[in-house]
Amino acid sequence: MGGQSTAFPLHGSVDTGLLRHIRRFSWIYAPSLADLGFAVRTSCAAILSLLIAMWMELDSPQWAPLTVWVVAQSSRGESLSKARWRIVGTLAGGVAAITLMAAFPQAPVMFFTCLALWIGLCCALATLLDQYRAYGLVLTGFTSAIIATGAILQPDDVFAVSVARSSYIILGVLCEAVLAVLFMPNMVERTRAQLQARLDDTFQATCAAIPQLLGMTAPVARQAATGRLLDRIMAFSGQIEFAALELGPRNRVGDHARRALAGMLVMLAHARALQILSPRPHASPLPTHEAPERALATWLRDHAPPPDPDNMAARAWQPVAMALTHEATVVHDEMLACHATRHGDRFRFSLTSRRHAREAVHNGIRSSVAIMAAAVIWEITAWHHGPAFISFVALIYGLMATRENPLVATLPFLKGGLWCTATAAVMALWVIPAITSPEMLLAALLVPMTIGGLAARRPRLAGYAFSFNMFLPVLIGPMNQGRYDEVAFLNNALAFVASIVFVLLTYRLVIPFRLDVHIRRTAAAINRRLRHLAQTRDHTNATTWLGACAASLVRILHQATAVPQPTVNACLSQQIGAMTVGLYIIRLRDMLRTGALPPRATRMIALFLARWQRGQAGPTTAYVLAWLHHEQTRPHDARDRAGLAEALACLHIIAASLHEHDPDVP
């Protein structure tokens, strides 16, 4: 009996472990219809582009399916945006390659020096841009390297190589676009419905989170909840551009949607101010039976602190709550404007995130050094596949340049490249030689490409699938008049794997990216900008300030696993506090600019803002608060009383935040 009783748990544990391992691959044998549709559609488009390129007897047909996998995205708008910038970048890169080849004939040192500087410039400028505009710029750089190195042994053919590479790009883009249109009918109606549903869901989540945030007294939990909501809002903001492309030209749906999301950021900043003024740890949650903006207004009215002339926080609650309610109404109105395209609508709004110029310079230097080092390796070794090695290095640097942390992104790229090399070895050396018809080629490539497409839809495997899908057709190298022999395949595969390892080493050795340094640099930059907000000539508005801070914070949170949790918590606290303080500094500056205060109060607020610019507002804040409180007891008309109440609320929130956060904040 004893032996049986110990055996049964053993069998159960084995079965449980086996089932756990089987379920890890459920994305292959039980994918969702959306994932399967994306994988099959993109695989068919890639194979179709390859067959057309071979039918046209182009010399390197494998570059066409690579383009398909590069531009293929989960939404049609993403694919359109990336394809558009890829074509622009390819054409610009072709012109740059021809110019470099013509400017430095028989001068390899000058040629590679200028090529390295050009690629470094493209990577540096791309660091300062968002979305696929950055991709188009880095594409200009690495396309010029691919074309130039492809023609370096025969410089007279550089124009023909440039035309051929551009032809592959356009062919791949067209094949992906045609298959996407066939697989995505009724795109406009579906996109508008999805945008509306996501806006409604995000707005409801924001309104529902405000009572919860006001009830959280633990700073770490409150900061984590705010960070998750900011991540959700900013991720949605990055996708709006693609939805606007799907809806067609001459519409302002994207602008209204971005303004609605910016309003949600303003609502969170006001909610943080209310939490500073008067926390509500035992308040009831938001009712769900009415519209979110009306439910929030009712909740704020019901949970307002009792009026108390001696309690400054209670007096400041009402102006902030009114501002929060007003912003919720604005968000609701902007969401209504997204329902249909209005004739004559010229509304424009954008959310931009500022990047650090120092990181751009580091990215450019790192890219230039890598290209020069790769050229030196080729010069020393005289390797026959040296030009391919240089082109792979330029290509991978271009792909990694716009990542938040290129070193972290390169590791899964290397693992996916190794899987790609192993699969390509089987295909190129055993499967492809036995193929005698296009139908057999399609059947042979469909399976690995579909698996790669399914992996691309899994966040955990997307980094692996990125390199696998792109470079599988390049390493297989199908041709009309022949095939890779073992030596050619091994040299090409070695150049590919060596280039990834080389890029990984340069990211570690040449000005390595450190997240803790980035966090300190971001904090210093925010403090400088926070002081600059008080200048009368500054035109930063609330939505611009909050959008830039939120985007910066979200970029840090995406890489937060690499630093200790106390450092992340301190960063969250500092940046969320700076967002709130900046909002009310902007409001004081605007009140001063528009003359919304009586003359005596105007002079005091001007004094406070002048001290704020110099980072000396700490001792002045309490004095100005006391003076304005005394000024409020003097007789004023209704307009001046409202202005004084709002100024007092702003200063009280600023003072409380200064007391709560790091004393280095101005």
Automatic annotation (TrEMBL):
It comes from the Bacteria. Keywords: Cell membrane, Membrane, Transmembrane, Transmembrane helix, Transport. GO terms for cellular component: plasma membrane. It is found in: Cell membrane. Signal peptide: none annotated. GO terms for molecular function: transmembrane transporter activity. The chain crosses the membrane at residues 85-104, 110-129, 136-154, 166-188, 384-401, 463-481, 493-511. It is a multi-pass membrane protein. Pfam families: FUSC. InterPro entries: PHBA_efflux_AaeB/fusaric-R. This is Fusaric acid resistance protein. It comes from Komagataeibacter nataicola. The lineage of its organism: Bacteria, Pseudomonadati, Pseudomonadota, Alphaproteobacteria, Acetobacterales.
